[in-house]
Amino acid sequence: MHRRNFLFSTSALLAGSALLPSSLRAIAPGDRVNIGVIGVNGMGWSDLTAMLKHPEARVTALCDVDKNVLDKRAAELAKNNITGVKLYGDYRRLLDDKEVDAVIIGTPDHWHCLQMTDACAAGKDVYVEKPIGNSIAECRAMVAAQQRYNRVVQVGQWQRSMQHFADAIAFLHSGKLGNVRLVKAWAYMGWMKPVTKKETTAVPAGVDYTSWLGPAQTRPFDPNRFHFNFRWYWDYAGGLMTDWGVHLIDYALYGMKASNPRSVVASGGKFAYPDDAAETPDTLTAIYEFDGFNMQWEHATGIDGGPYGRGHGIAFIGNNGTLVLDRGGWEVIPEKDKMEAVPRVKASDNGLFKHTRNFLDVIRSRRMDDLHCSIQTGANVAVNAQMGNIAYKTGQKVYWDAARQQFTDKAANKLIVPEYHNHYKLPK
User: How many angstroms separate the CA atoms of 12 and 1, rounded?
Assistant: First the structure.
C-alpha cells in the first residue's frame, strides 16, 4: 500500500464511533491508558487513530510546533465528542503532565532520539515512529535509554503485527526453500513526483520553526523541508532507504536471523529527477554482505514496476524456490520441479490496529519480550539502513568491525555520530 493511500485509509477511521471517548466505554478508570501525542500531522495522528480503537486508550494531550495542525486535530477530536484534551507547543511540557501515561512520537526523524529518551526519563511508555533514529549513535542512545528506565517502547514497524508476515517467515524457517543465498528488498514508488523547487519564505504564522529545527542546522524556512517532504533532506531523515527500507529490510534481517553485515556498498543518485529540490537519492542500490548470503536493497521513485511485478517487497531466493512477500500477501515460486508452489496468501488483518493493541497489552503486563517490535529490533534495522546511506555518502565499500562496533574506514566512522546544532546534545 502506498503511504498516501495508507494515510487516507487510516483517516477514515475517524468516521462514526471510531474515536468515541473511553469514558463512554465499559473500562474502569484505573484500567485506562492516558495517551499524549507529540507530532500530530501525519503518522502520529494515524497512530493515535488506531490507538483509540482500543477501549482502554484515552487521549489526554496533543503537542505540535505547528499551531495550525494542533488546532485542526483538536477540532477533529471535538467532532467525535472528545473534549478536554490539553494542547502543548513544547513537548517537554507534555512530558511534565502527570496525567499522561504513554506518548506517541510522530515527529520528523531528527527529533525521535531526543524525544524518546526524554519520554523514558520522564517515566512514560513510548510508541515511537520509525526509523527510530537518524544516525547509528542515536539508535544506540535510544536502546540505552529504554534499558536504563525500563519503559515499554514499541517501534511503529506495524508489519511486525501482521499475520501473513509471520506465516511467511515461518515457512521460510521451515527450510523448504533450501539454502537461501540472496535476499532482495525493494521499494518502487511510482506515485512520487518531483519536489518542485520553492523560494525560502517567512515562517508561517503559528509555526515555532526554531523548535521544529531542534538539533538540525539552522536554515531559512523552506516549505519543501516542512511536514511530509522533510524525508528527502539529510538534515532530518535518510530518504527512501530509511523511510521504506526499515519496513522491508527489517523482514529480510528477521527472515535470515541476521544482525550487522560484514560490508556494504551502495550506488545511486538523483537519476529520475536530477533538478528537483530533494537531496536524497531517488534511485539507489545497496548490497550487504552477510555470512552465507547477500542482501540487496533497491529503491526508485516514479516507477511502479518493481521485481516480481510488485512495487515493494522482500524476496528470499533459495535453491528450491523463491518466497515473495509484501504488505498484500506472500507466495512461493518454485525452482523448476524442486518444490510445490504456494499460491498467493492474501493479507487478512490490520497491522496498525494489532500493533497498537500489542503496545497497550505490554503496558499492562510489563512483559517486554511480548513486544512485536521492541526498540532493540527497531535499532537493528535502522542501523542497517544507516549503513546503506553511509556507504552511498562515502562512495566506497565500507567494512564493519563487529568487535569495535564501527567501520574500518575513517570517513564512514565520522558519519556514525550526528552533528547537533542549536545547543542540543546527543543523549549520553
Answer: 15
Which CATH code for domain 3-159+352-374? 3.40.50.720
Do the domains at 3-159+352-374 and 161-348+380-413 have one common CATH topology? no
Give residue-wise pLDDT tens across range 330-356: 999 999 999 999 999 999 999 999 999
- Provide the terminal-to-terminal Cα distance of the chain, rounded to the nearest Å: 38
Computed from CA positions of residues 53, 56, 60, 66, in that sequence, does the dihedral angle turn out positive or negative? negative
Per the listing, cell 534495522 goes with 381
Q: Which pLDDT belongs to residue 4?
A: 42
Tell me the percentage of the chain whose pLDDT exceeds 90.
92
Q: How is domain 161-348+380-413 classified at the CATH fold level?
A: Dihydrodipicolinate Reductase; domain 2 (3.30.360)
Domain boundary assignment for the chain: 3-159+352-374, 161-348+380-413
- Confidence category of residue 90, pLDDT binned at 50, 70, 90: very high
Residue indicated by cell numbers 517501534:
155
Q: How confident is the model at residue 26 (pLDDT cuts 50, 70, 90)?
A: low
CA distance 208 to 88: 12
Give residue-wise pLDDT tens across range 196-205: 999 999 999 9
Nearest to 43 by CA among 21, 11, 66: 11
Count CA within 13 A, CB hemisphere, residue 376.
Answer: 11
Sheet holding 33-38, edge to edge: 86-88, 57-63, 33-38, 102-105, 125-128, 153-155
| CA neighbor of 232 nearest in space, from 286, 285, 297, 281 | 281
